[in-house]
Automatic annotation (TrEMBL):
Listed name of the protein: Alpha/beta family hydrolase
Keyword annotations: Hydrolase
Residue stretches making up the KANL3/Tex30 alpha/beta hydrolase-like domain: 25-202
InterPro entries reported for this sequence: AB_hydrolase_fold, KANL3/Tex30_Abhydrolase, NSL3/Tex30
Name of a matching Pfam family: Abhydrolase_11
Species assigned in the record: Streptomyces aureoversilis
GO molecular-function terms, A-Z: hydrolase activity
Signal peptide residues on this chain, from the entry's feature table: none
Amino acid sequence: MIETVPTPAGDARIHWYAAPRARLVLALGHGAGGGIEARDLQALAAALPARGVTVALVEQPWRVAGKKVAPAPKTLDAAWTALWPALRKPGQPVVAGGRSAGARVACRTAAGLGAVAVLALSFPLHPPGKPEKSRAEELTGAGLPTLVVQGAKDPFGRPEEFPPGTRLVPVPYGDHGFAVPKKADVGQEEALAGLTGAVADWLDGLDDAGAGH
């Protein structure tokens, strides 16, 4: 189901992948260079409903409007905040998440919106080649249980560059889009299955810990 939600930045779209007996909603925003067709977002939307998690893939207004360049972080945050009531409507606790720029939006806004946890896919810890321009404070400042899933070869931050204590799942050979080279000893499908399995197990753990209840 696709739901259109008005925001101050224009209409956003939520693509719902409903779980038959949902216990959580996982809301995922896309990055600045692409939309909800990203392989990790699609893999999670396909895999998680069977594990009791409704997935909501959120298209930011700039993508809905057909623009090529993402607006300023404040505009992204305002749109995400405006559509949050629609994400809460099913009545389950909501985990905020996203990939790349979408992960940054989730980290900045989750606590204030009442999310129970944050899923950061391909968190852009720094611009490529500029490790001194760290965004670690954005990640550690989320103030909620946070899982980072990061490609081992991500130029925006490799797993070993993250602050100590970060809960992180590395994707072997993965780049910023979790693409795996053909010559790697892990296939693309296998890499994505590892990603979705790790996220599902983490979400199960949140449930066991009583998050949102």
